[in-house]
Design a protein that fits this description.
Layout lengths: L13 H11 L2 H5 L1 H21 L1 H18 L10 H8 L4 H9 L7 H21 L19 H24 L8 H13 L8 H16 L12 H12 L2 H9 L15 H10 L3 H5 L1 H11 L3 H14 L5 H17 L5 H19 L4 H16 L6 H17 L4 H14 L9 H18 L5 H17 L8 H11 L7 H14 L6 H7 L12 H15 L12 H10 L2 H15 L6 H14 L1 H10 L7 H16 L7 H18 L10 H4 L4 H10 L3 H14 L3 H5 L2 H10 L7 H16 L3 H23 L12 H13 L6 H20 L1 H8 L4 H17 L10 H17 L11 H22 L1 H8 L8 H25 L8 H24 L6 H28 L4 H21 L2 H13 L1 H8 L1 H4 L15 H12 L8 H15 L2 H20 L3 H15 L11 H20 L6 H17 L1
Helix pairs in contact: 6-8, 7-8, 7-9, 8-9, 8-10, 9-10, 10-11, 11-12, 11-13, 12-15, 15-17, 16-18, 17-19, 18-19, 18-20, 19-21, 20-21, 21-23, 23-24, 23-25, 25-27, 27-29, 28-29, 28-31, 29-31, 30-31, 30-32, 30-33, 31-33, 32-33, 33-36, 35-36, 36-39, 38-39, 40-41, 40-42, 40-44, 42-43, 42-44, 42-45, ...
Length: 1232
Amino acid sequence: MKNFKPPPPPPLSFRQRQNSASLYSNPQYSSHTHTQKQKKRKEKKRKEKQKMKKKSSKRRSATTSSSSGAAASVPSATTFATTDELLSAALSLPSSSLKTLIHSIPFTSDLFPSLPTSLHSRLVASISSLQDPSASPPHSPPPASPSVSPPSKRSRLDHLSLLKTYASIAYFCFSHPEKPFAPDELLPCVQCLHDSLVLFESEETLILQVASLCEDWWKEKLPGRELLISQSLPYFLSRSVTAGRRAEVRRVFALREAFALFDYEDESIEDFKLLLLRCFICPVYVKSDEGRKILAFVLGLNEKLAKDALSLIRSQIPIGKKSVLVAYGEILFRVWKGIEKESIMKEEIEDRFLLGLIEGAILARSKGLNANIRRILGAFVEQRTTSGVEKLLCRLVEPVLFRSLQAANSEVRLNTLHLFLDIFPILDPDSTREENDNLLEKQLYFLEKLLSDDAPEIRAVSVEGLCKILRLFWEIIPTSNIPKFLTKVIDEMSFDVCNEVRVSVLNGVRYLIENPLSHEIMRVLLSRIGRVVTDSALSVRAAAIDLLLAVCDNRFLQYNKIVDLETLVSLLGGDHTRVAQKITKLLLPTYFPTKLPLKDACVRCISLIKRSPPAGVRFCEFSLLEGSSANSLAELVRVSLLLAFSPNKGLDQDQTDGLVIAIDKIINSLSGDGEDSSALNPVRKLITVEKIKVLIDAVSSDQAREAVLNIASSLLSSTGSSNGLRDVCMEIILSEVGLSENLEKQRLVVAARKLIFSCGLSELMLEGLASALGSSVRAFSDKSGEDPASPVSSTPKVKKKHAKKAKSSKPVISSTSELAANAAAASWQVKDLLMNEETKEALLNSLFSDKIYSYLKALAEVFIEKCFEFENLDVSPVLAYLTYAKYASLQEDNNRSSPDQPTTVDNMLEHILNCIGQLLEKLVSDEPSTLKRGRSTETNEGSEVNSTHNIVKISTAILKFVLDNTTTGLVKPEKLLRCLEFASTYTKYMNLAIKSADQSNSTFDLDTSKETLVLLRSSYTYMAKLLHLVITTLDDSSEDAFHITNSLLDLVPCVETHLGARHASLLIPVAKQWLPVFILGLGSKKLIPSVNETSPKLVNIPLWLSTLSKFSEESENEENISFFEKLIENLAILLKKGSPKILDAVGSVLLAGIEMGLEKGHYVLVEGLSRFVCSKLLGSGYGALDNLELLRGYMQELLIAIENCLGDGECEEGREQLENAMGSIKTVLLSA
């Protein structure tokens, strides 16, 4: 619009020019010329301002002017002498002008009779030219400019442009408001366009224009409309499927009667039939009402088409969505209802499709398939009042129902039961009343029989289904059967051993009481079901409370006649959250009613807290969620606080604690950013520091103290007010011990820390924690006679003062356990601070961070060295040390000058692995004396178990840290080999410790050993993962991988031999999972190219090889083989299925064991391993030894060695075993 220039004014006519000349020659005009020019200038400026203010109006006026200009350029119909002239001129007109031209032809014009004929002749010529690309378009105007398009393409575009114009003329003639053209005159033109639709496939606009013309012709029911369907209807059908819009489906629906015009037996219609079948799986057709009506109409047109469509529907049943399957059912019912009786199509639907669905539902292999089939059948069941439906269901279902309900397969009975419950009652409208009564009695008999079925799932479904049947069909069930059914359900099935059955009983009764006719008998029976609220299963208790809620909503029944109030209060205080919340909803009208004055409601709620503090706390916790208003709960908080502050409140200690905790729960539910938080504003005026201190002195439990601190955090108005609680919070933080296993103490300490941080006193708290850690370090040092760890050089001066003060005071600590508890509590808090994002930053950036880390390092070393002195070690210092190093390294990443510079994690790992490694090496190298020292007389009988448990806890923590941080890149790959060495030493120690504990007959009781083995299972997994990482990452790790693999395999028979199969069952699943890694570890010496050893060397015979030889010898005579032998069988299967190169490498390890046994005179081992290798690995059709060069050469060497041993006479005592071994080896070599 910026460069827009108005068109020049039209030229003046001769008369206008003459009048203008006379005007300028007038003297009066010339005397006022100056004045008129000024007026014009002012008028021009005014107009320009208006134009600037009304740009949008200017755009609309410009558009209107352009369209009016175009309209003005439309030639008049009277200017054309012939229709050829009119049609030629129409080629250069836009659509709107063309419409104006056609509609402006007067009735008296001679163009009317000849226009349809001329238009038809031009259409025929244009279509013929379109089919022949070399021909030029007839009557086309010359091109305005040379085209760069290819001649054939340009010619086709010209043809299509002509056809668009002719199609528009035909449509405007058809839609002429005066209808001057007879349908017979226009039909040849429309039919010509329709028959050529296939030629316009590249021009969507032209196709839609022609198809719309045919659509309107059909809707107006004009003569010859059946000639305009064969091309237009498939187009609209394809367009609706592709577009997926309901508007397109509605267009097809308007043409639905035209589907009957097609000959579906003709072979040329196959594509159209495929398009129709595609509609059956098109969502827009299945989900829209018009689409379903179209599909139902199509199904009734042709038998073959219907069979194909039914097959397509059947294929969609296993994967169809619920809404789609319900729609299919509706379509089938529409078809069935609209088909005449005794027709082939009706027989196809009833006796083939529906009967096949019923049989498929009964024999379905899954619950989902059964449910999907029943969704389709549900359309007929819901319309059973329609004439003929009841008869159809009875005829199809009755013959197979009762037979299937007695099937031996429980899944068949369950599927049939679901179908039976959907269709009940099965009655024949054509039978007599007596026959139907007998049929109904038979159905009720089977239903009662299924209540005692062996399958719990069938019992659960049948009892719930029975109650639903009684709810819906109470009037038609014989009166004598109802009490019998309900008595069995409530008195027997509510005691069923299966939880699902008991839940079904409660759900079924909940459905049943919705029927008013059942209230009289249920008022008596419900009192017997109250005991289920104390059921051992959570799902049953939750269902029982749901039943009570349903009874509460029924004004004819009372829930307190079913369960007494004392039982509900007891459950509210101690049950699961899911149950407690439901009970709160149930008791809300009793203990916090909205109908009473608010003061009285608060008194009732406080009376509940007095009656049962735990129940009152849970009630207050869920009151807001179950409908209590925020203002009423805020008033309850105010009243409760006034009672808590009162010196003569008349509450015992438990009630006071419960009242404070309940206040905290309500405040927590009201706190937040919503409107509920504003309700607490009046309460905040009551809270002061002095009153908080009063509450702290008044309560006794940790949970109540936590609640007081939470109240202070939520309601104290300013930081200065919170500062008054500094000493209280610091005392809690620094005095609590045993935090790692006590959740209540943890929450208390966290609440105190939260208040400290909100006051901006984080440095004071960290100073206190550093002082506590330093005191523990110095106390341990004084107890052992060593110098305490010196603080780092960056320690601030304030820390030195605390250090001197702590050193001079020298607190007396009675025992090492007390020392450890204090150190562990402070360490746990450091670790917990690091786990929170906000507190982590405060700790790492604190002035005391370096000192805290140095103290953690010293404590971790002490805890590792003195782990034998603790009965049950708290590894919090080790965990805090590991965690601190992790987050410190992450913070250092941006400040490191070089990636090769050691990180805090690198230094920490080196230190801690040295500490634990030296301890384990000492235990392994001097096993008898060291383990005996761990069982000194100062400790109790289970000291060895406890010390082993402590080592397992520490080692598991270290291994978990290594594995977790290897994936994040904090642990470098070069550190993995050092970690693997530690893991190898750890597994050797565990083998020795388990063996020593068995030999010394120590108290390795089930609880203690199981806890140790659970940790050992975790560390076993971590070591296997570490082994896998080392094998796949490092090239020079074959020696370490080989040794730790043997140690890991040794653990399994060690645990099973010395602790029993029950303990070994905890370890076997983990070992089985990592067998492929163990195979690679055993064969690593031969699989890594850099290793040039001819054979793997064994220093000692591993326990797993020794145990394997015994199993292979005795397994033939044992019925129940051990866990370890099953593990070895899986290993053999994996070896035989895998690469021959791996089998060759691992087999050489087994032959090395044979060689070691031959050298040490262990002839049973030689025989057993030989039989295992020859029979398990190389026997039973493995094949030739062509790809097993190592095994073949090694076996030949062993055969010579055995022959020499027998020939020298040195092995007479083991001659029989060696001869057996030699025979096994010869058999394999000869077969090769």
